[in-house]
């Protein structure tokens, strides 16, 4: 025995809940900014910030942007309003999938130097998905 109390409670700690909200807010900010750039901003302006935009169809760039916008909102709104909060971990899974696909895309283009951000972002999205599916799900409101 080490003298360290062992909790048998399945209730997640306050620290985990705070960490999940912080990561959700950071990821939401990241993806909302990226989504605005790819989904709303004129593509000629977006191409000045993102070098691969001229190399893919405009519809694909817009689709990625709108998916990032939807995912960014999905990380916060369902959990914060407690209306269909099960959508929050699904948003995290979707955004993690976008990042995994981005890793493959950049590797195929010989741009391995940029995948670090995608790996970290995918890992953070996986943390949110795990946390909100398994350890600290948010209960729906009684409405």
Tell me the quaternary state. Answer: single chain
Mass-distribution shape: elongated
- Secondary-structure class: mainly alpha
The average pLDDT value, as a whole number, equals 94
Which strand-content bin applies to the residues? under 5%
Walk me through this protein's architecture.
The protein has 143 residues and is mainly alpha-helical. The chain has one domain. Helix content is 70%, strand content 0%. The N and C termini lie far apart (47 Å). The model has no long low-confidence stretch (mean pLDDT 94).
Chain-wise SSE layout:
Blueprint: H1 14-39, H2 43-49, H3 58-81, H4 87-108, H5 115-135
What keywords describe this structure?
mainly alpha, about 70% helix, about 140 residues, 5 helices, about 0% strand, elongated
